[in-house]
Structure formats: C-alpha cells, structure tokens
Amino acid sequence: MLIGELARAKVNLTLAVLGRRTDGYHELESLVTFAATSDVVTIETDAAEELTISGPSARSIVGENLLSRTIALLRAADRRLSIGSVHVDKKLPVAAGLGGGSADVAALLRAIRRANPERAKAIPWADIAAVLGSDVPVCFADHPALIWGRGERMSLVPFLPAMDAVVVNPRLPLATASVFAALKSGPAPPAVAAPAQPQIVSVAGLLDYMRARGNDLEPPACELLPVIVEIKSQLAAQPDCRFAGMSGSGPTCFGIFSSPASARHAAAAIAAARPEWWVEPTILDGAP
Known about the structure:
The protein has 288 residues and is α+β, with helices and mostly antiparallel strands. The chain folds into two domains: 2-156, Ribosomal Protein S5, domain 2 (2-Layer Sandwich); 163-284, Alpha-Beta Plaits.
C-alpha cells in the first residue's frame, strides 16, 4: 500500500511570548494557519523498512532525525503496525520558522494512521505528537488553530479566510533557541487561560487581528539576522501587498497580497532581485 501525505508549511500569523516558564519553555499564544507549500511524506507498507530523504533541502537536515524517533515511538506502542519504507521529498527550508520538521513528523503520523485503520484506535496519537515537539500537535491536526502553553495546547479555529501570499526565506538557518534567548523575557504568569477564539469573517478582519498582535520574536530575530528586515521591506514594497510579517522564530517572512496574480508577480520580482533566496507564491487557507 502506497500512502502520501502533504507536510504543509505552518505559518504563525501572530505570536505572543508571555514569559519563560519554570520548566525552561516559554508560554506562548499564537494563531496558526497552513500554506499550500509543503514537503511530501510517502510510506509504502509492503516495502522493506527504510527511511530516505530527497529534495532541495535534504542536505540541510542535521541533528536528531525525528522521523526515526517517530517510528520508534510507534513501534513501542504497537509492534504490529504496518509502516514499511518512508520517503520525504524535502522542499521546505530547514530551521525556517515554518515548522517543516514538525510538519514532516505529523504527516508521517497521519500516513501510518491511514495505513492501519484496524489498529489506529489503540494508538495515543496526540500524546506521541506532543512528545515529539511543541509544533507537532498542531501540524498533526493540519488545521488553523489557536495554540498556547509551549505550543502543544490548541483550539481549532472553525474558519479563517484564504489569503494569497508570498513566503520568503534567505536560505540562512536561525535557531529557535537563540531567538528566545535574545528575547530575554521575564517569568511567565503562574496560570494562563485558553485564548479567546477570534471572530473573523473576512481577510480585512484577519489582517486587523494580525496587526494588533504582531510577533514578539521578530525584534530579536532581526537583531540576530538583519536580512529579515530586508525581506520584509522587499515584500512590503511590492504592489498590492497588504501585510508583511515574520513566521514563528524566523527567518521566513510572508506577505499577504490582494490576488493570486499580484502574489505571483511579487514572487517573481523578489526572486529576480535576490535569486539566492527561497521565494514561493502560495495560499494561506489552512485547508488540507
């Protein structure tokens, strides 16, 4: 059986850092959506077990392989799961603030769940996702959401309007831990309630919501990697750009445009001016 899953780029439309917790993590609140731009994770249950990675960003992966760890956790939960071979077509840039590694892991979980419908009910999917990383639960849900805690707690947002966008990354990694360290936030409040669900029915309303909240990690990220300022300026200078912001801990930035054509034209102009950057026109709509 051959099963493929899109590992879509996660985009933080807003990101508030409420403080550093006693366990070392930071207390966050963020509105998250997903882009049409993605990696692709494929499993072949009838093949011999192996993990392969290809694609333009494959060589950028360093450190612990979370895909292997995912398989090990699932094997510990049920050794009779059908998994077989796993292949990742890695298109998203690494250490980019797009949750690419988390999205790959989440897509692998969904693919294995689809391949094992008779065994899936006994597997604690959500618990395994939370163990694998703060971004993995929302990537596993693959749906717009408000997230809080260290990012593992979430409330799905029933509706967010689709937005034409351009995502830009300078092909320079930026470690999340370094950005949080540079923020130098104070202690988190002892108790944090779930954030209120936004009542958004239009792109204009969503943009107002985003402008009012912003991204607390943008200033320290810009200090560590000043090219982020240039990326945002390039996006904002394009015709019909309605908003430019940074996703997650950076350095990827995104611009919201008035139409698919204006997004494509902006992407082409930026790519021509800075061919060393990763530039993609896309849609932010959260719909898989």
